[in-house]
Amino acid sequence: MAILRTERFSDLLARCAEEADSLTLVAAAARHVATLGGRFPAGLGMDALTAEERFLLESAEAAGATVHCTVAQRGIGDHMLITSTGRLRLVVAGEQTPDGAVFVGNVDWHGNRPADLDDEFTHRRYTSLASREAVKKWLVAEGTDRALDLIRKLRHTFRHVGPMLVHVGDRHYTNLGKASNLVGKSVGVDSEKCLLNVLEGTPLLEWSDEDCTFLTLMSILIASGTPSRTEEFSGTQLSTARLESFIRGRVQAYSREVPESVEGLPEIERLWSLAAISCGARESAMASGVPVYRVIQGMTINKEERLLGTPVGAADLPDSFSRLLRPYLTGAQLDGVGDPTALAGAWAPHIAGLHEPADSGFSTRFEELLHELVAAATSATRSHVGMSRGPKDVGLLGRLLAQGDPAPGKWKTSDYYCCVVPSAEFVDRFSAGPESLVQVVRAIAARMRWNGWHFMPPVAGPGELFEDRDWFFPPSMPDITEWTSHHHQGHVANGVRHAIRVPLPLVLAGATRPGIHDFRLMRSDGDPYDLTDLRAAIAVARVLQSLYQAHARELETSSAGLVVSDFGNRWYQARYQVTPETGPAGAAAPSV
Which single residue of 113, 132, 410, 501 could bond 213 by disulfide (Cβ 3.0 to 4.6 Å)? Predict the structure, then answer.
């Protein structure tokens, strides 16, 4: 699978440093490093700078300073570097270079270094230090019990959300990879490497200002919305000023106003109150159908919630996809694509037929149609691979949930399927090594089955029933991702550079269950997806959701069972096996 493998993150950092040095001017070099070679917006990269670093950069830009990587002068004087976590740093003369950093170059002021630069740099640093000191003062006043409660809640959250990385001054806090200092995939819940565990056994007065700031502000950030808020400051500085601006922006986006009584509160109490307003306003907005999505910058694992504007409708469906639906749904019925639960009723007359056996390498017409729909959407969005996952026996799932039986939370990955469809262009890439195609498709399907397993426990019962296994909070909104091919092991191996994910909940046993299905698209290179692509993907996903809902209703209420048996390893092996005469069998997506 090396044909798709992405370079190591450390290699990318080294390459960006070399490229930045060739740009000469500090402004251009800093922008190149801050965005890791233009792989995400400059504003996001610059938000990783501390206030004093930003001042140093602005001063160097105004003076027309340049950057030179001279080995003999490395680290002497003001200089620029990239930390091992990918953050741009501007370091003044005399300060120690952090371990593992990649040196970019020394700053050459050409005699224009301001005389008061060091004093102003120090002043801004002390202002930031004073802000963090104030947060610690607040936490100490709250007392040890409150601090320990925040720790326990954060530890639970970090165990069940995606990776995040934030900066507080020159320190970082992350549950991602080798730099991890929080519980997550790389650090166990009881590990001494988890800072939260260390703090728990340390007197509150001995906690650093930075640790108190992280603990308090991250807790406030989460309180402003959902657990996924942890990722909305990834790659940036977490400070009181930036957090207040962020939460106020969310309150405004949800069309809510801040009462005057909140404005007069002390800073930290004001932040907690703003977070509560934001959370309540968000819940109201979601309940009223306000469409939201997230933009994910894979390089910084930053995930920004945005409002979609106008709701997605039938006009967003690709024409080729709509043509496939004509035997089943009328144009008038498709106008209800915004309400998949209601649209499921339009599928009802066809479900019995779709549960009948099929030809052409599929067990049932349901599995065949699912494959055709994913293939059409993959082609229409110029994607390299499309996929949709779910539980093999959704009827059994519904019946167990109705009985209050938490057994699905213990299901194995083999109890899930994923329909993976590579495009014809993607298949052609393997012409020199066609045996690798089967491995890639199977690997993608395996990862998606694991996602189904990963999201089931919160659906099956209280979280405490499943503390002996790994699980995530199910995603609740669509997302569009750029440059996701470096941090995620599966994405690194299979070149998943740009992606779209649309989570598809189902109504089972009378309640909406998140995380049951999803629809995804990926590109291994080329242009990132745009908003038109996202709207098309959401529209397609809503149709799939209605089909899944009709399928589930039939199986929940009938004695007849249907277990999806296609889309397993043997099925992919048979479909994409290499023959001397034809190459990979059945590999190309059907023309529609």
Answer: 132
> Which pLDDT does position 365 carry in this prediction?
97
Do residues 378 and 529 make contact, with C-beta atoms less than 8 angstroms apart?
Answer: no
Length of the chain: 592
Q: What angle do CA 184, 128, 267 make, to 5 degrees?
A: 85
8-state DSSP, 225: S
Distances in whole angstroms, Cα of residue 351 to Cα of each of 209, 228, 467, 543: 61, 36, 38, 14
The residue whose two tokens read 């199986």 is: 555
String of DSSP letters for 217-271 = HHHHHHHTS-GGGGGTTTTSB--HHHHHHHHHHHHHHTT----HHHHTS-HHHHH
Could you tell me which residues come within 8 angstroms of residue 70 by beta carbon, excluding any fewer than 6 positions away?
105, 106
**So what's the pLDDT on residue 579?**
57
Q: Is 461 helix (H, G, I), strand (E, B) or coil?
A: coil
CA atoms within 13 A on the CB side of 194: 23
Coil, strand, or helix at residue 531?
helix
Distance CA 95, CA 114 (A): 18
Model confidence pLDDT, tens digit, residues 270-306: 999 999 999 999 999 998 989 999 999 988 889 999 9
Scanning 329-475, the segments in alpha helix (DSSP H) are 331-334, 340-354, 365-380, 394-402, 424-428, 435-455, 457-460
